[in-house]
Amino acid sequence: MQFNSSQREITIKVVYYGPPLSGKTTNLQALHKLLDPSQTGHLTVLDTADDRTLFFDLLPVTTQLASGFSVKLKLFTVPGQVIHTATRRIVLAGADGVAFIADSQRSQSRANNEFWHGMRTHLKENGLDPDATPTVIQFNKRDLPEVRSDAELAEIRSRGKEPIYPAVAIRGEGVVETLRGLLDLVLKAWSQHYEVRRHLGCSPDELIASIFGHLRPLPPEPPTSKGT
Ligand SMILES: Nc1nc2c(ncn2[C@@H]2O[C@H](COP(=O)(O)OP(=O)(O)OP(=O)(O)O)[C@@H](O)[C@H]2O)c(=O)[nH]1
Ligand SMILES: [Mg+2]
């Protein structure tokens, strides 16, 4: 969290982390469509010809508060390909919160686990305490066959402390809930050390309402193929 009192601006860094192809970039693309366009900046996607993230993606979201303060969210994704380990560590530096995008497909359970532990290691390498870093988990791709069941998600939820959000990011479902849940945790953590209301001139709930108060409708369902 960077607090610039002379410019009356607060910057919050959020990192979307997760295994290869889990839908991190898709989350940012969906947020870019769903959030109030007057608050979202340019979506920077640095990828290869086959849409794999090469370095990171970045979506800035700025909300102006009645108090005159502006809150700038910087939403980053890491690249999931195994070769980009060093880049993932660099992008995680200074994260105020992490949205871990897990792939719900059973075949990806091991990759989810490996990346979860990798993320915790990288946070430590960056001097951050993984247990104190606000984190939410999204189980994406709920539309696919052979995915972890809702009961399994409930079981994972009961074992850990991180909130869990099911999602179908290609349809924009669960994407806003994930980010809203994470910001809620970030602001709660922040309010343990600072008087948020005094710094922002508003409560955490008012800040969240200001970011998510003017959502656009979900994009229409992609046409289903009619083949037999
Ligand atoms: N069926 C389905 N496909 C999805 C969903 N979300 C993303 N995808 C697809 O999964 C593929 C990978 O999505 P990306 O968002 O590029 O994944 P990523 O995590 O950014 O991938 P890397 O940056 O290479 O790690 C794309 O073909 C997406 O369209 C979903 O909810 N359901
Ligand atoms: Mg990506």
Topology (SSEs and partners):
Blueprint: E1 2-4, E2 9-17, H1 24-34, E3 44-47, E4 53-64, E5 70-77, H2 85-92, E6 97-103, H3 109-125, E7 135-140, H4 150-159, E8 164-166, H5 175-191, H6 196-200, H7 204-212
Parallel strand pairs: 2-5, 2-6, 6-7, 7-8
Antiparallel strand pairs: 1-2, 3-4, 4-5
The protein binds guanosine-5'-triphosphate and magnesium ion (MG).
Would you mind describing this structure in some detail?
- The protein is of the alpha/beta class and 228 residues long.
- The protein has a single domain, classed as P-loop containing nucleotide triphosphate hydrolases (Rossmann fold).
- It has 7 helices and 8 strands; from the N terminus they run E-E-H-E-E-E-H-E-H-E-H-E-H-H-H.
- Strand 7, helix 4 and strand 8 form a beta-alpha-beta unit.
- The longest helix is centred in the middle third of the chain and has 17 residues.
- The relative contact order is 0.18.
- The mean pLDDT is 92.
- Guanosine-5'-triphosphate binds next to helix 1.
Main β-sheet description: 8 strands, mixed
The stretches of 5 or more residues where confidence is low (pLDDT under 50) are none
On the 0-100 scale, what is the average pLDDT?
Answer: 92
Second-tier CATH architecture? 3-Layer(aba) Sandwich
User: What value does the Rg take, in angstroms?
Assistant: 17 Å
Strand content: 15-25%
CATH topology tier name? Rossmann fold
Q: Supply the helix-strand structural class.
A: alpha/beta
Oligomer: single chain
